[in-house]
User: Which sequence fits this backbone?
DNA sequence: TACGTCATATAACGGTTTGATATATAATTT
DNA sequence: AAATTATATATCAAACCGTTATATGACGTA
């Protein structure tokens, strides 16, 4: 799924500027499973507008750049709907935390402990962020999606709490092995 | 975390060719949280070799291209360890499935059902793939990481089974709304 | 006075996708 | 049985897509 479809999808929920699309994708109710950058959004919007998929309304403001508010057109809606019919691609997931855990025998027990503590507070933060988003949103699709994200987050937290001792042991074992050599 | 560090990390587990690094990252025990492409791996290995971070042993074969087997050097190991000390970046997660669910009111009940069925079999497939990887691997870090992935996968399956009716209702509601208009 | 928010935009960089090249073996179709 | 197609091994480059970093600038807040 490319940014083109992503912009159309967000605009299908309501008019927005490039700035707002960015915020929705990295902080709003889309943020759990999407993250687009300005460098991709602005050129995509320009092209979508040239092709008539979205229309533009300029709101001039004093001291600030002109707000360029985009709306999806009937043509754009059709392209968007057509794109929804293709089979969804597999999820993409990248985690530097898991990579670090995989290499835990190269870390000191102290480092491992710090990383795990950081992970748990990161997950708690994500979790409460999703709770917040869920409260301010009664759209059914959003409820389902945020609920999914929350379930993942809670499962991760539970796993971390149940298995942190095992992970911390890796660092301690390595020290003993090195001492024995 | 860039491919450079990723290649060093995989080579720190043992010698490998570019081809094998790719397989490990998209099918092996790293695949749950990493995925690198040939187009990134080969240039990275070439550069790493030029810089003395990895050494090269060529194995000539009949009919096939020469196998270029890389090993991490002491210098490479030092760079790798140094890179493990930085705070892990937040996870990156992208899901076309969740995007589709977010837009469920634009889909027919039939489409939603098909997407959910596909999702459940995808998750089951991922889950059994992880079980398989876990069995063939008694390295502690791998156990922790695969266990994490498995926990996520099972939580996703449970959520899907508990909430599929809710999601399927979205499509049916939309039809009724449209009929009423 | 420095940082966070609003707002658009581009250049440099990094990584993915696609496809070229080449052979052997396994599976499927005719 | 023969022919075709898919899969696995193995490296690599070009085209394309998206991220990161940065420029610009004003307003509000700590």
Assistant:
């Amino acid at each position: 799924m490319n940014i083109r479809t992503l912009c159309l999808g967000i605009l299908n929920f309501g008019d927005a500027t490039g700035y707002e699309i960015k915020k929705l994708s990295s902080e709003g109710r889309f943020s759990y499973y999407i993250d687009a950058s300005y460098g991709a959004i602005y050129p995509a919007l320009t092209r979508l507008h040239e092709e008539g998929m979205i229309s533009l309304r300029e709101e001039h403001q004093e001291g600030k750049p002109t707000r360029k508010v985009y709306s999806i057109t009937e043509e754009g809606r059709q392209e968007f709907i057509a794109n929804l019919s293709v089979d969804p691609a597999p999820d993409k997931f990248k985690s530097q935390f898991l990579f670090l855990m995989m290499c835990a025998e190269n870390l000191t027990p102290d480092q491992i402990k710090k990383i795990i503590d950081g992970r748990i507070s990161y997950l708690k933060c994500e979790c409460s962020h999703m709770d917040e988003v869920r409260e301010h949103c009664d759209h059914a699709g959003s409820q389902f999606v945020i609920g999914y994200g929350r379930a993942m987050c809670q499962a991760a937290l539970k796993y971390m709490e149940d298995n942190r001792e095992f992970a911390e042991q890796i660092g301690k074992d390595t020290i003993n092995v090195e001492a024995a050599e």
Residues 2-3, 35-40, 62-65 of chain A lie near DNA strand D (CB under 10 Å from a C1'). Residues 96-180 of chain A form one domain. Chain A touches chain B through 62 residues (CB under 8 Å).
